Amino acid sequence: MSQQGDRPATTDDWWGRLYDESAPDTGPAGAPDDTIDDRFDSAADTLGAGGAADTTTRAGYGHAVDAIGVDDEDDGGDEDEDLDVGAAGRGPISRSPAWWEARGVHPVIQQPAPAPAPAPPPTILDTPSGPPVPPPAPAPVPAPSPVAPAPLTPRPRAPWEPPPAAFDPGDPRPLPGAVDPPPPRVTIPAQATAPDPRSTAPQAPKAPSPPPPAPAALPTYVGDRPPTYDAEPTALPATDAEDLGRLVADTVLDGARYGTYTLRAASMRGDSARYRGEPRRDALLTARFGAGASALVLVAVATGARATEGAHLSAADACRWIGGAVGRSHSRLSEDIRAGRRGDLKSGLHRLTDRTYGKLRARAAELGRDPEDYTASLRCLLLSADPECRTRVFFGVGGGGLFRLRDGAWQDLEPLLPEPADIRGEPVLGFGSAGSDAPSEQTPDGDRLTMDLEITKPPGPVVEDPVPPPPEPFRFRASVARPGDTLLLASVGLAEPLRGEPALGDELAARWASAEPPGLAAYLSDVRLRVKGYADDRTAVAVWEA
User: Fold this and answer.
1) What is the arrangement of strands in the sheet containing 409-412, beginning at the earlier edge strand?
2) Which of the listed residues 119, 142, 176 is the one where a domain comes to its end?
3) What is the pLDDT of residues 190-202, one digit of tens each?
4) Is residue 144 located within the same domain as residue 281?
5) Measured distance CA(363)–CA(320) in Å, rounded
6) Which of 93, 330, 376, 400 has the fewest CB atoms within 10 Å around its CB?
7) Cα(314)–Cα(357) distance, integer angstroms
8) Where among 151, 176, 201 does a domain terminate?
9) What end-to-end distance do the CA atoms of the chain give, in Å?
10) pLDDT tens, 18-53?
11) Is residue 186 part of a domain?
12) What is d(CA 286, CA 327) in angstroms, rounded to the nearest whole number?
């Protein structure tokens, strides 16, 4: 369209005539209403991926001219170059990001997508006059680069600027610089095949193994019924402020290890004494004399007379005095044990025991008491510390027991005492014996010599009390231990139930069947295994042979 005689058309005039509503459009219209938006969409479709990005910007922020920085009002600037996006075939517009894009507000990242099929390009007027010129062929769209664009560096926000808008979780587009989320963790079941030990991949944790079953509780008594008394102490013995040194503990526990043996010793009050508040009548002494291979270990167990006052004191005196006697002679005793001189040991220990009982009788006289009241049974063990010596010596006087556990069975090693009827001796002269030198009561004629002075004799005194029994005989035994043996020295309170209740021996044999000896606490629990009908004090000394 030409208007001769007018001044040359400027850019502003071309803009006004191009968009003047009064000027008819000479190009074919693709739609009844041809607006600038329709033309912009047509040009965007022609440009392909680059146009799609601008269309996205337009769809996200409103009018297309807002996206490229053109105001609705004409300010006289040179915006023609921005509008002619495809006139010279330059491809997508290259521009710097706006401030809201750099700050991460509604980020837009170009994602590779298949280009839509090009629509028939509309006819674009090159000048206000002349024939229509077909648009140039669209430039080939380069393939998207496999390298992701570098993330934009956000600009620091000024104090007057509003904070950036929060990211919409419903927006399918990722954030700038975001990385793909890690793949979900896969747990391998415990029944799967064993992993390859050469693999460096992390292995799934093993399923926790079930806890081991709790050990069965050990019995606290044997027999058909539980004992009558309580298992724990209920009363303390009475004492005086001036006699505190005479108190004895309810339980004594000791142990040691020398050479090839392990020693365990325990002494405790019986159930009846704990119930009545009586002191423990059993006394226990463990002592070592000397050092090295020549050292000698003494274990003494004494029990005071039953139902007598101060029975625990006489037992303690017996242990203390036999300990002193052995300690003063320990060098000679140790040599005799290692040399195996059984005869010398028996005679020497017999003398030491007699001296101990002589002191007990002297102490009873000092206290104004009968010797039978202030006495005690005494049983001792002598053990050499030499690893090459396995001779174990027992000696003593009075009741108790000496047992040996070998191959799972108990053996009673208590020395046998002769029966009173088996004891015979020569008749004593002057007490009814007829010796060759005895005077004759008859004359050579056979007459009996009688003398009757007619003096009336009063009747002799009548002896109603029984004759006191002879003192307890001395017991001695020396035996050679074998590996695996367990020697047990017991007072009356444990020896009687071992002989009277087979279940007690079976239970102890089962507990001590292991090669390792029990600890002090376990040993105390073993020897306090109760039996109904036996409530006396218990003292036990056990020696385990390695």
Assistant:
1) 251-258, 261-268, 538-545, 486-490, 401-406, 409-412
2) 176
3) 554 555 656 565 6
4) no
5) 13
6) 93
7) 10
8) 176
9) 127
10) 555 555 555 555 445 567 777 777 777 776 544 444
11) no
12) 12
In 10 A of CB 11, how many CB atoms?
Answer: 10
| Residues 267 and 541: beta-carbon distance below 8 Å | no
By the 8 A CB rule, do 535 and 271 touch? yes
Inside any domain, residue 202:
no
Amino acid at 429: L
Q: What is the DSSP annotation of 337-372? A: HHHT-HHHHHHHHHHHHHHHHHHHHHHHHHHT--TT
Give me the domain span that covers residue 140.
Answer: 11-176
Instruction: Look at residues 255, 264, 318, 316 and name the one whose alpha carbon lies nearest to residue 489.
Output: 264
Q: Which residues contact 424 (CB under 8 A, 6 or more apart)?
A: none
Nearest C-alpha neighbor of 508 from the set 416, 379, 409: 409
Task: Give residue-wise pLDDT tens across range 238-276.
Answer: 888 888 888 999 999 999 999 999 999 999 999 999 999
Q: Which tokens go with 207?
A: 């399923």
Q: Residues 254, 172: one domain?
A: no
Q: Please, which residues have CB within 8 angstroms of residue 249's CB and are 6 or more apart in sequence?
A: 280
Pick from 212-216, 430-434, 471-475, 518-522 the range whose average pLDDT is largest: 518-522
Cβ-Cβ contacts under 8 Å for 531 (sequence gap 6 or more): 221, 222, 223, 227, 497, 500, 501, 503, 504
In contact, 192 and 205? CB cutoff 8 Å = no
Model confidence over 211-237: pLDDT tens digits? Answer: 777 667 788 888 777 888 888 888 998
Contact 327, 291 (CB under 8 A): no
Our CA dihedral for 407, 411, 413, 414, rounded to 10 degrees, sits at 160
Round to whole Å and give the CA distance between 203 and 188. Answer: 8
Angle at 407 between CA 519 and CA 252, to 5 degrees: 30
| Residue matched to tokens 């003292």 | 539
